[in-house]
């Protein structure tokens, strides 16, 4: 999509829109914080306008930036935590490589083998990830089942190893 058509009919310059969206996505700023920052710079923009920009342009930025992400290594650490999203408790699955680079994340209502399998499949399908040599997980019983199913479907290489540890997988050696 050309830049001209992306910002067609917008009241503000493309650079200002992208600056607001980038700051919102990168830093812990609220829409009202950004409204105040822009007002200090002589750009009166409402916080709801910045919200709409974020909703419209964030997916496009993600799509364009993803191919340029640093390629990850083959030692993964996977864990999940319980977070509240819009008033609903959900499981947040997250994978990082041994150097701390985020591979992928996934929100799920359930904490079972199907959710773990969906998460692994999503992480394996991204363009910036390397096929894992080892995956370190906690003692959640869902991981081995999902791992075995993916190996049977040949989504994971035969040499890939699943390591379970009682320790936090972020701290485990790869």
What does this structure look like?
By secondary structure, the protein is α/β, with parallel strands linked by helices. It folds into two domains: 3-68; 75-164, Nucleotidyltransferase, domain 5, CATH 3.30.420. Helix content is 40%, strand content 21%. It contains six helices and five strands, in the order ααααβββαβαβ. It has helices at residues 3-6, 14-26, 31-40, 47-65, 113-124, 142-152; strands at residues 75-85, 88-97, 102-108, 134-137, 161-164. A five-stranded mixed beta sheet has the order 3-2-1-4-5, covered by helices on one side. Strand 1 and strand 2 (88-97) form a beta hairpin. Helix 2 crosses helix 4. The longest helix is centred in the N-terminal third of the chain and has 19 residues, at 47-65. The termini are far apart. The mean pLDDT is 86.
- How many helices does DSSP assign? 6
The major sheet is characterized as: 5 strands, mixed
CATH superfamily of the largest domain: Ribonuclease H-like superfamily/Ribonuclease H
| Span of the ends, CA to CA | 41 Å
- The geometry reads as elongated
Could you tell me the mean pLDDT? 86
Helix content: 25-40%
Keywords: DNA recombination, DNA-binding, Transposition
Domain Integrase catalytic: 63-174
Protein name: Integrase catalytic domain-containing protein
InterPro entries: DDE_dom (IPR032874), Integrase_cat-core (IPR001584), IS_Transposase (IPR052183), Transpos_IS6 (IPR047930)
